[in-house]
């Protein structure tokens, strides 16, 4: 079994800012999905920030409908964990229903070919409420209820598990302080993962430059953002061997050629 992963599309109608090429996001998403099709991926996962957020509910709906057409057109089963930019001027339940492939309630799990896959929602604030526009991107949490669910979910499976999440769970420092892309209660989350003994791979987004760490036997792989760079189309293919509990990761970050292919 193999699956494709990408992160941080940030689709919107804003002007490019020199680093984030919003105007290219849809085209780059199409190219990324096309690559997954050619690689015969069994399913695809978006690690959040599919859109860049809007307080205009009609604009937000239009963006999501446009991307849903692209995603459905790929014919690939699609899953997603919500990112901090996947917010806007809609009630939370309505917004989650519009985001393609997001589990009801924002987090959940599924199984395929002998592997347990978990989609988490890192968009909570300290008091346990879901993130609002007023909450900073660098002060995100997994709420206590979700942590309890995660512990129970991992206890109930007898299969190796892979975690998908937007904000980061590994312990990383930036200038001596917690890397702002890492959730505030990262130690609590990792304690649950480590206690289960079933998790060896965590795939995450949010940090646009990407990152890779291995902590207590768990690989934390942070994907580069699709929105960054005018022609770069970063993504990841993962081949799974559940019998050996092994995963082979193939990164691609090639620039597009003139015919729309990636190098």
UniProtKB/TrEMBL annotation:
| InterPro entries on file | Calcineurin-like_PHP, Metallo-depent_PP-like, STPP_CPPED1
| Domain of life of the organism encoding this protein | Bacteria
Record GO terms (molecular function): hydrolase activity
Instruction: Supply the Pfam families for this chain.
Output: Metallophos
Calcineurin-like phosphoesterase domain spans which residues? 1-209
Question: Entry's PANTHER family?
Answer: METALLOPHOSPHOESTERASE, CALCINEURIN SUPERFAMILY, SERINE_THREONINE-PROTEIN PHOSPHATASE CPPED1
- This protein is called Metallophosphoesterase
Annotated organism of origin: Candidatus Lachnoclostridium stercorigallinarum
Q: What is the lineage of its organism?
A: Bacteria, Bacillati, Bacillota, Clostridia, Lachnospirales
């Amino acid at each position: 079994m193999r699956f494709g992963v990408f992160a941080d599309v940030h689709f919107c109608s804003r002007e490019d800012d020199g680093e984030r090429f919003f105007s290219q996001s849809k085209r780059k998403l199409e190219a990324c999905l096309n690559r997954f099709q050619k690689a015969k991926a069994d399913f695809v996962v978006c690690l959040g920030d599919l859109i860049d957020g809007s307080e205009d509910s009609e604009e937000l709906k239009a963006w999501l409908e446009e991307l849903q057409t692209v995603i459905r057109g790929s014919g690939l089963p699609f899953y997603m964990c919500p990112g901090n930019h996947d917010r806007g001027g809609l009630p939370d339940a309505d917004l989650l229903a519009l985001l393609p492939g997001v589990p009801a309630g924002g987090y959940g799990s599924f199984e395929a070919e002998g592997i347990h896959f978990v989609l988490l929602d890192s968009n909570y604030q300290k008091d346990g409420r879901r993130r609002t526009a007023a909450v900073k991107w660098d002060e995100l949490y997994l709420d206590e209820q979700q942590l309890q669910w995660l512990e129970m979910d991992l206890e109930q499976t007898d299969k190796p598990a892979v975690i998908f999440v937007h904000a980061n769970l590994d312990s990383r420092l930036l200038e001596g302080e917690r890397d702002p892309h890492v959730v505030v209660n990262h130690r609590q989350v990792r304690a649950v993962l480590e206690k289960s003994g079933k998790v060896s791979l965590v795939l995450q987004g949010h940090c646009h430059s990407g990152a890779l760490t291995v902590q207590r036997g768990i690989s934390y792989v942070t994907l580069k953002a699709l929105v960054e760079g005018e022609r770069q189309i970063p993504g990841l293919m993962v081949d799974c061997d559940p019998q050996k509990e092994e995963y082979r990761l193939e990164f691609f970050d090639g620039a597009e050629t003139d015919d729309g292919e990636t190098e």
